[in-house]
Write a structure and sequence with these properties.
The protein has 434 residues and is α+β, with helices and mostly antiparallel strands. The chain folds into two domains: 295 residues, Zn peptidases (Aminopeptidase, 3-Layer(aba) Sandwich); 129 residues, 2-Layer Sandwich (Alpha-Beta Plaits), CATH 3.30.70. The chain has a six-stranded mixed β-sheet, sandwiched between helices. A four-stranded antiparallel β-sheet has the order 6-7-19-18. Strands 13-14-12-15 form a four-stranded antiparallel β-sheet, covered by helices on one side. A hairpin with a 2-residue loop joins strand 1 and strand 2. The termini are close together.
């Protein structure tokens, strides 16, 4: 089957499903599925997805919560402390005829919260389309792509397209907030393939690598009170402020000294992002006391690169905090405490020569005129596939903006483009015939 014929057939097929793809994406955006760790509220969206696809011919659909998977809590990749009541994964599978390679498209249904509010483009769950952009929490990360991949499976089923290898598409829970136990549950349950495609928002870059990272909380101690009785007090805000001022120096240091292993991040000018995201000093409750607090803290997310272990990152950051605190004993009567808040998201790289990459490049050049292969700019759950199940993993997703912020959006045309690219990939990888 030559590419010219295949491209024309795919164009015509996906065109017929365009409105259904967009409609599913809008429907999913309209259903809140926020991850508010340790809890998550994906159930309604997952139930909607399951009900929509449960009666489609040839699709084997499974629904299960992570803790229903035997042995998950004993797995070294399991992250403790999350609540999985009413948080089901949904996995669809089309069995191949045999003799071909298998593929899985892995999506997550959970989103970050609707905050910060207010949004300018209606409310966070409007599903509004304006100037070719679909707005709403999770539209970009990653319900738009989720809709494309589940519709891909429906297209292949509806048209009775024969494929030799198995096709799997999943919607997992608890990816945000460094979760990944939903992803782990599907792997332990046996939904594994010869290659995993993660349609995270890569801006149409083909990304056979992902960054790592971890969230830390840094505490400074003080002596509480007002000093009205002549007490010698220490305000922890001063030490915290000194540490926060030094974070830009830390960011400069780790980016100028970064020596990433592997292939994809060697030429990035700023390969490691540092996000200082939360600060608390004093009593923030309504009517809180006017007083020097006894403790203050900030939290920070630090990216890592292939070749960095969790121990490497822990030591690097703790040593930096220690060095800063030693310089001014007046504001640091005690050494600051550094606590890891999340699991370590391991960085990963798939072999640059993996055979799925040129297939994706061919399709993307057809429908987008160009194809960029690079490392993803972010960390995600791809390490579960790569590190713990030895599955080659590629990130490839749509363009959009404002992920984790107000007015999140995804490019509607990219949802159609991705469906075409993925249909081509399945036909070539799984050896299908139209």
């Amino acid at each position: 089957m030559n590419n010219g014929y295949l491209f024309k057939k795919i164009d015509a097929i996906v065109c017929d499903y365009k409105e259904e793809i967009i409609g599913l994406a809008r429907d999913l955006v309209k259903i809140p599925s926020e991850n508010i760790a340790p809890d998550g509220f994906e159930k309604d969206a997952q139930e909607f997805l399951y009900d929509k696809f449960k009666d489609i011919n040839n699709i084997e659909l499974d629904k299960f919560t992570p803790l229903e998977v035997k042995g998950i809590q004993d797995h070294p990749a399991y992250f403790k402390g999350r609540n999985y009541k009413d948080r089901p994964n949904v996995v669809g599978q089309l069995k191949g005829q045999g003799g071909g390679k298998s593929i899985i498209f892995s999506n997550h249904m959970d989103t970050v919260t609707r905050n910060p509010l207010p949004w300018k483009e209606n409310d966070p769950f409007s599903g509004k389309i304006k100037d070719g952009d679909l707005f709403g929490r999770g539209s970009f990360d990653m319900k738009g792509a989720l809709a494309s991949t589940f519709m891909l499976m429906k297209i292949i089923s509806d048209l009775d397209i024969g494929i030799k290898g198995d096709l799997m598409v999943e919607s997992v829970v608890d990816e945000e907030n460094a979760g990944s136990n939903g992803t782990l549950a599907s792997r332990i349950k046996g939904y594994n393939a010869d290659v995993a495609i993660l349609p995270e928002p890569s801006m149409l870059s083909i990304c056979p690598g992902g960054k790592g990272g971890k969230v830390y909380r840094v505490f400074t101690e003080g002596k509480a009170g007002t000093g009205y009785g002549g007490e010698q007090l220490v305000n922890p805000a001063y030490g915290l402020g000194a540490l926060m001022r030094s974070i830009s120096d830390y960011s400069d240091y780790i980016n100028t000294s970064a020596k990433p292993a592997g292939h994809y991040y060697r030429d990035e000018k700023k390969p490691r992002e540092v996000i200082l995201d939360k600060v608390q000093i004093g009593d923030l409750s309504p009517g809180g006391n006017i007083s020097i607090p006894d403790k203050a803290w900030f939290s920070i997310f630090i990216q890592s690169l292939p070749g960095y272990s969790e121990h490497d990152l822990d030591e690097e950051f703790r040593n930096f905090i220690t060095d800063v605190s030693k310089k001014d004993k007046k504001v640091f009567p005690a050494e600051p405490e550094v606590v890891g808040l999340t699991r370590y998201l391991w960085p990963f790289e798939t072999d640059p020569g993996h055979k799925s990459i040129p297939i994706l490049e061919t399709a993307l050049k057809k429908w987008h005129n160009t194809a960029q292969v690079e490392g993803a700019k972010f960390a995600c759950d791809g390490f579960i596939f790569h590190k713990y199940f030895s599955t080659p993993t590629i990130i490839f997703g749509p363009r959009g903006g404002n992920a984790h912020a107000q007015d999140e959006f995804v490019k509607v045309d990219d949802l159609i483009l991705m469906t075409k690219v993925f249909l081509y990939l399945v036909l070539r990888w799984c050896e299908g015939e139209i």
